[in-house]
Structures are given as structure tokens and as C-alpha cells.
Amino acid sequence: MDPVRIKEIVSEWIASFSELLKTTDQQTISAKDLEPEIKKLFLDNSYWRDLVCLSWDFRTLTSPKGIANYLAEENRLQHLKAVRLDDNPAHQPRDFPIHAALPPDGPIFGIIMFLELELSSDRIGTGMLQLGRDEDGSWKAYSFSTLLEEIKGHEAKCGPRRPENLRYGYEPGRRNFSEVRATDLEMKEKQPAVVIIGAGHTGLMVAAHLTHMGIRTLVIDKNPRVGDNWRQRYGKLVLHDPVYAESLPYMKYPETWPLFAPKEKMGDFLESYAKLLDLNVWTDSTLKSSDYDPSSKQWTVTIERGKTSGNAETRTFRTNHLVAAGGLDGQPKLPTTIPGLASFKGKNGSGVIHSALAGEAAVAGPGEKIVVVGMGNSAIDIAQGSWENGAEVTMVQRGPSYFFRRDSLVKHGFMTAYWHQSSLPEHEMDMIMWAYPMPIRMTRGAALAQALLKEDEEVVQKLKALGFKFTLGPNNTGLIGIVAERKHPYVNDTGCMTLVAEKKIALQTGSIDRITEDSIVMSNGTTLPADHIVMATGYQGAAASVKDIIGEKVFSQLGKPFEYDEEGEWIGNWRPSGHERFWMCAAPLVFSRVPSKLLALQILGAELGLH
To answer: Which superkingdom, per the lineage (predicted)?
Structure first.
């Protein structure tokens, strides 16, 4: 489409929407009266996803009626004062596949644009609008996303707002940087306003935003060093997502960083990230108790620090907010109902080990027999690593799995392909991804699944011929649906499944009858001799991890955390949890950049008394 015509269409829509804002700013308008005005601007099958912009929550509204009800409730539309087209040259309106329909229809193209939003209470927002054609040929909104960007006067101290550090003049008794940091880290002069449990990528990202917005934050982690959650895993672990989708706020990877980083580099980067961003992190530290006082709106938390190093101390703080950042997976899960699980001896008496706890022991050596139970990413990494070491490898698949090759995902993935190929900055690419409500994500997921299946058809058919149980997930939505549902594993393959298809790694499917001191016996009677048995059988989930952190009393108030509500939003994750001033955050790294800032802004808003 002609760029001039695109601008005309966009300008007309913004002008009409701005007139609506003027009307609602001058008077309260009911949902009944607002709905016909919304219908003039939005398609019947449209969506509005509001991320901490018109309310301090994550909401997805469907259809003009649903949108009107939401905007009229609490006069929310009055919070939106002005909408302007973003004047950044890289953000100009353009053709864009707003709906990735399945073949043979192909994608439906519309217009995408980024908007600047002026909000009440000195807040600034970002919008992403996608326009599509109505049946009468008019251009209306298909998807509108509004996202809180910053609160004026409390912007992150970065870029042109970076701290000075060296002030002109003199000051008797001035402390140097190391002295200031050491005092700050010890938390003896001031109490932390926020305590975060978990120094993985989510905890560190939230801490980075809070710290540089001026909110005093302490992160605690049970491991001896930041990054040990990566270092302690099996030896050949490499990130399966490419570098251009995996960066952290405020600090980019070096230009020489590999496309797919090994675990050691990822662990070291997180440790450097915490240090260079001046985050207050206590390692070798655990939360011993927490108690909330609703009258003062504060938590009393007791932390045990330095136990394994022999320098144990116990500290108690009064803090305003408690954040659980224990990870999306939680603790390892062993199939304890399998008879004989404890009877297996293993080489050197190692017994049955879980992939997450095994470290280097997870990979077998030359001439050894290893049985890997499970068919997810950890399973294929361990199986392939063992085969490359010269071991005899058998994989046991008990239930259906989804499979795709990593290279196919990089080529076709609507996330990774955009980051790699687009000229848009990373923040805008994140915005595109987060703007999509669940129904659109599922539709795009189904299209992606078909593209990957076509790309990987030959390997899939070979695997099926060997008995591999293949699934495309709920409603054939592939990776997107499987990640959302979390009922089946998926295989982001880097070569292992080709080894299986070529029978270089053996495949057994079905249930396990029992485990003996030196083998696994399948329900069909097949015996699998083993020097090593690795259970790559998943994890208990984020909810169980939160329960361990916070206890039954608080956990019982959280509803069904990390499941999805009727609007397709994560329950309690990155948003109000159900308990005052208790927050939860868990997601893969690529899905954590946007919500980590939004969570920090919610906490900042609470500290400022805005909600």
C-alpha cells in the first residue's frame, strides 16, 4: 500500500479516536452510550489489551461491547488524555500481517503503528494499533494495546538521565564508590522497600528496573553465586533461543556473543549483570519467615545469610513489598509412583537422578548405557551429549510430545524471525509480541505450527514410524498452545531427534512397569539395561515454588496462580497476585523484558500512592 495513503488512514482514525477522548473527558459516559462510538472505531472481532495503563492490572477485552464495558467502568477512558502517532522514523505506519491465517488463506495484511499516550497522574504510555478493513471497506481497529511506559519524575536513571557519580566541588569525608556500594549492600543504614526471592533472570530484571527507578531493593538467592542456576545444570546445556531474543534491560551482550549461549556464559553474564548494574544481591541466603501486617502494609521478613560459607547471620527487615521470583518451572519432579525407583544402583552408586540436579553426571561416558526418561529439551540435550561421548543411549517417551527443529523455528518463528530480520528496536519488537491477546497468539501459533510441520515433515514421519507420539498441542496451536497449557513437553531440537530417526539413539515408547537395580522394565516386557538412569520428567511448576516460599496461609489467597483467566491473562503473574503487596514473576527470558518493567511500575505506583 502507498505510504501516503497509509498515513491518511492512520490520521483519520487517530482524529476520530481523539474526538471520542474529548467527549469522554468532559462527561461521564455509560457503557451503553459508549458502545456505538466504539463500534465506529473497532471491528466486531477486535481486542483491546491494557497493560497497567488504564488500570493497574493486565486486561484483555474482546469486541466493542466488552471494550466499552471496560472503558466505562470507573471512567477508565478518562485516564487516556491524548493519543499521538510516534514520530520516530523507525515507527512509521506500515503494512503488517495482522492475522496469520492458516494456508491456503495466507496472512491478512493491515496497518500497524506505534502511538504515544498521554495519561493522567503524570504517566506516559505506549500504544500499538493494528487496523484492518471492515466489510464495508472502512478501516477500523483490529487490535489496540496500551502499555504504561513511565511515571514522570521517576523515570529510570539511564541514558541521558544517567547518574553523574563524580560531582564538581569538594565534600569533607566523602566516601568512594566501593565504600558506598559495600554499605548499600549490607542494608544496615536503610531498610529495603522491596525484597525479591530469586536471583534468576526474572528477579534480576525486576530488581534492575526498581533500582534504577529509585526503589531500594534487595534480592536473595540460595545459591553461592548469581548464575549458579545455570552453571549447576548438565554440562552441554546451551540456550535454545537465539541471542537477539534473549537480552536483558539496560545491558546488552557483547557483539561477539554466540548466537546460542552455553550455560556457563549465561551464568557469568547474570553475575556480571547484577554487579555492573549495582543490584543488591545476597547469595547463600534463604527466606526463613514472612508475615504481613495489613495495618502498616508491611512485611516482616527474616533472612538467613551465609550458612554454607560458615559466616551465618540472621537479619530481619520491615519491607513494603515481597516478590517471589523462583522461576516458571519450580522444583524438579520425579515419578515417585514407579515401583523400584530407589532400588536402582547405577554406576558408582549414583542411583536415579533428575536432569536438573545431575550436573555433569547427567551425561554418560564412552561405552556406558544410559536411559533417559522424558521427551523435552533437557532429555534431548542429555541424550545427544551422551551419544556424542560414545555412550549407548535409549530414550523413553511415556506420553505425547511436540517436536520441531531449532533452525526451523529461527526461520519461521513469529518471535525470533522478527527480532532477527526487523529494523525495529528490540523494545518495539517486544511491544508487538506483548500487544497480542491470547486468541491472536493462538491463531498465529497454529499458523507457525503448520509452517514448522511442513519444514520438518521428513523427520516427523521417520519418528512416527518408530512409534514417536507426536502432538500439535491444544487445537493444533503448536508451541504457543503447549507453552500456555503446560501439559505436554516440547522438543526444540538441535540434532538429537535426527539421531533417533536414524536409530543411532534407541526409542522406547509406553509406560514403565518397574525399575530394578540395573535396568528399566517397560510395561510391554522390554528390559532396558542401564549404567545411568536420568529422569528428565519436568518440574512441579511455579505455583509449588511460590507455596514453598510464602507458605500455605498466603498461598491460599492467590486463587490459581500461573493458570489463565477467562481473558487469557496469567493469573497473578506480573500483576496483582490476590494478596496485598505480594507479587509473583516467572517466564522465559524472552517473555520477561516487558512485564518486568510493568511489575516495577506497579510497585512504584503503590509506593507513590497512585493505587
So the answer is: Eukaryota
